[in-house]
C-alpha cells in the first residue's frame, strides 16, 4: 500500500517537531490576544499557525523547496481572506485591523515552522508579541495627544440633551469627564432642543478614541440630574 511505503519515521518526527513548534508559538501569540479579549484569541491563532505549518510541511515533502515556496504564497493570500472577516467598519471607526495583522503574523510563524525554520519561527513570534505588547503604551500615549487637524480623517463629538435650568452644570460636568478621560475638548456649543431643553455639543480634537471609554462616559453623564440623553458620534473629515 502507498501509505505504508511513504511512511518515513524520520520525516514523521520532523513533522512532529514543526507542528509542535507552530502549536506552541501560535498558542503564545493567541494567549496574549485572549487575555485582551480580542476576536481572534488562543484557539484561532493556534489553528492558523498549525494550519500554515501543515500545508508548508506537506508541500516541502511532496514538492521540495519550490513546492513549499508556492504553498507559502497561497497561505499568505488565504490568510488575507480570513483576516478580512475580522475587520469591521462602523461609521468612521474601523476595528479588527490589529487582529487581522496578528493572524497574518501567526500564519508567518506557522509557515516558518512548517519549513523547518524553527529559529526563524521563534523570532517571528517574539516580534509579533512585541508589536502587540511593547508598542501598546506608545500607541496609547500618541493617541491621547491632539494632532494637526489638517491631517485628520475623523472627528468626534459628545452630545448631552438636558433641561435648560441645569445646562451650566451639565456643560461643566461633560468637560470634566472628557478631561479626566484624556480626551481634549476643542469646542463646546449649545443649541436649543425644543422649547424647554438644550443640546450641548463637545467637539473633540482629532484623536483616536476607544468606543468603550466614550460609552462609559456618556453612561455616567446620563446619571446627572436633568440630563435626558447623552451620546457620541464620529464624523468623517476631508
From TrEMBL:
Family per record: Belongs to the MgtC/SapB family.
Membrane topology of the entry: Multi-pass membrane protein
MgtC-like C-terminal domain boundaries: 156-232
Pfam families hit by this protein: MgtC, MgtC_SapB_C
Location in the cell: Cell inner membrane; Cell membrane
Keyword ATP-binding: no
InterPro entries assigned to the protein according to its UniProt record, in alphabetical order: MgtC-like_C, MgtC/SapB/SrpB/YhiD_fam, MgtC_SapB_SrpB_YhiD_N
Protein name: Protein MgtC
Superkingdom: Bacteria
Origin species: Comamonas avium
PANTHER family: PROTEIN MGTC
Keywords: Cell inner membrane, Cell membrane, Membrane, Transmembrane, Transmembrane helix
Amino acid at each position: 500500500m502507498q501509505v505504508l511505503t511513504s511512511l518515513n519515521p524520520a520525516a514523521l518526527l520532523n513533522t512532529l517537531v514543526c507542528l509542535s513548534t507552530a502549536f506552541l508559538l501560535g498558542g503564545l501569540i493567541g494567549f496574549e490576544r485572549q487575555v485582551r479579549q480580542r476576536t481572534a484569541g488562543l484557539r484561532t491563532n493556534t489553528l492558523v499557525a498549525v494550519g500554515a505549518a501543515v500545508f508548508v510541511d506537506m508541500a516541502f515533502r511532496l514538492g521540495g523547496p519550490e513546492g513549499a515556496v508556492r504553498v507559502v504564497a497561497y497561505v499568505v493570500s488565504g490568510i488575507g481572506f480570513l483576516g478580512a472577516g475580522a475587520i469591521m467598519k462602523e461609521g468612521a471607526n474601523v476595528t479588527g485591523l490589529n487582529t487581522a495583522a496578528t493572524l497574518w503574523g501567526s500564519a508567518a510563524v506557522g509557515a516558518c515552522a512548517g519549513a523547518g525554520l524553527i529559529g526563524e519561527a521563534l523570532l517571528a513570534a517574539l516580534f509579533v508579541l512585541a508589536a502587540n505588547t511593547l508598542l501598546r503604551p506608545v500607541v496609547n500615549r500618541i493617541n491621547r495627544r491632539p494632532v494637526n487637524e489638517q491631517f485628520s480623517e475623523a472627528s468626534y463629538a459628545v452630545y448631552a440633551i438636558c433641561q435648560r435650568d441645569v445646562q451650566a452644570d451639565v456643560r461643566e460636568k461633560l468637560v470634566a469627564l472628557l478631561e479626566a478621560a484624556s480626551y481634549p475638548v476643542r469646542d463646546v456649543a449649545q443649541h436649543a432642543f425644543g422649547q424647554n431643553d438644550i443640546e450641548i455639543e463637545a467637539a473633540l480634537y482629532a484623536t483616536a478614541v476607544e468606543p468603550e471609554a466614550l460609552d462609559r462616559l456618556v453612561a455616567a453623564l446620563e446619571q446627572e440630574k436633568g440630563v435626558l440623553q447623552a451620546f457620541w458620534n464620529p464624523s468623517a473629515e476631508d
